[in-house]
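Record type: ASSEMBLY
Status: queued
Input:
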Amino acid sequence: MEPDRRLWRFHGGLHLPGHKRLSNVEPLDIVPVPARLIHPLGQHVGIPSEPVVEVGETVQRGQPLSRATGYICSPVHAGSSGTVVAIGPHPIPHPSGLDGDCIIIDTDGQDMPYEGYPPLTNYRTLNGPALRARVRECGIVGLGGAAFPTAVKLNAGAGLRLLILNGAECEPYISCDDSLMRHRAAEIIAGAQVLLHALEIRDCCIAIEEDKPEAFASLEAAVRRADDNRIEVVQVPAVYPEGGERQLIQVLTGEEVPAAGIPADIGILCQNVGTAAAVARAVLYGEPLISRVVTVTGHGVTRPRNLEVRLGTPLNKVIDHCGGYTDEARHLIMGGAMMGFALATDAVPVIKSTNCLLVGSDADIAPRQPASACIRCGECAQVCPAQLLPQQLYWHARADEFDKLDPYHLFGCIECGCCDVVCPSQIPLTQYFRYAKTEIWARERERRQSDHARERFETRNQRIERAESERQRRLEAKTRALKQTRSSAASKAVIDEVMARVRAKKAADERDAENGDGG
Amino acid sequence: MLTAIIAISGLAAGFGLLLGFAAVRFRSEGDPVVERIDSLLPQTQCAQCGFPGCKPYAEAIVDGAADINRCPPGGEATIRALADLLERDAKPLDPERGEERLPALAVIDEDLCIGCTLCIQACPVDAILGAAKLMHTVIASECTGCELCIEPCPVDCIEMVPETVTLGTWRWPKPGADTSAVIAASPNPASA
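Status: finished
Output:
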């Protein structure tokens, strides 16, 4: 342990009021298993998974309900034992407010465990691929909020030298990682050890922001107990958005991840502390990802706190457990105040990426003022942690000039919302960037579709042309053959013979008919 | 004086030959501008522009026989892209050609279909499956929504159904268009 580790800075960022004490004073609470669990099939980055259970089937706690349909995909597991009552569309937490396919389970209260994943306490004798397969089958995804399948991230190849566990948790209001680090430090350290073994690297750095001294002390103590000199706990200054992967790597190592690359390109792998704990549970206890710590906070909820919640629990049950809404409740936001999105209903379930549920009063969430014109003050560029030029991006996004956004690296934007906060004209910059991103994807999709249609159209035309030319050829051949037959002397004899045969048959038919009438 | 005339004529003849040779030797197959315009068109082959398909329309644009605002399925985005490519001014869609509509898919009412194959012959992208006197159906993933199958159907059993937005095709609304969807809420400094 070296307390005087050198730290660097990332560009821009903001010192924001944390509002963390609202939720992190109470001890970690557990929400009881509800009567009904709703498991969306797509709760991760990538394609949705595919059900492997049928309606009416009895399932155990942790039993796989779906399987991965591709590489970047992750299965979901039953949050408790019970019966599958429906598979179909149900409201899910998504900014669109659209329904998604879900597997719905009525729980039986027994909470019987599934025995399909034996604990791998001997994980030190297993290699990376074997441990990765366990992480994959247990449905573990990044729990920091992005929900990228962890097994894919672990398959970064050789050349890694540093594992970073991200406990920075910089976004206002969110304190679920803080709570996990205070109460489940040993699990996080065990997860770090499993990951270090699986990745065959020797250095792990756990980063915690300075405003979480209890979490820091708890993890320090856990490292001492584990007596593992590969793991170092580091305090970093509290600047938003330091919990961003690229920003945290820059603070810890001074190195920048290439704009089009990933951290593995510079030998670094970054995981959320919650993900590390989930890996430990999957490997050491054979427990798939069926629960997570969720922060319920804001002045719109009676008893804000951190809770361990089974995935699939409807949000209204979680809110009820926290004493229900207060009179001040105005906004229901999944995620924090900066990067979260508003929900239209609390009937949606807790999913793998649900780190926080912010029930905001009007004091928590300032209603947005009408936007004025951009005065090109440049404040947004000063605070942009990705070193972009938000005013230029805004200019082109507003005019729908999407091809001009490329040179300004729109896709480098991490949607942290810093530019929104400092904009004196109250322009919703981040929403312009989200709009432009989905619009560019939609146009790419349309272009692929039109290329496909052109191909089919051309193929069809070729087929019609081919058929036509073949018909012409056959016609010509026939005409030629006919001409030849006519010209030959033998043809007359052939025709006479055929005619004679036809006459004979006709006479015979008539005879038969007469006989028939007579009979 | 004479030297100058000879020199200039010689140069002219030399370059003329060179250009003539290049025109033959490096002849490009097809018209690259037509190809580029065609690649911007939506490939519905719907003929709403008055030409029998996207490529004929692209050729007509190059020949100057048609303006860039005659493609209703492509709508404003296509007009803008064409204007960018051809360095002309964008203009509103020609109302005589129809109006920009939401993308839709043809759906056959399978109870009414008599299996006449007329729609199959009309479909420019082979998106309708069926055989004579057997029920026909539209392959949704291949349908471009050109509406060419509607007209020939003798029993009027084909309908255009607007494409539904899914989680995979959903887009963030443009700010200002719908303020209720404003998301990234900033923390109020007053409550700090």
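Annotation: The domain at 101-166+181-192 of chain B is CATH 3.30.70.20 (Alpha-Beta Plaits).
Annotation: The longest strand of chain B covers residues 104-108.
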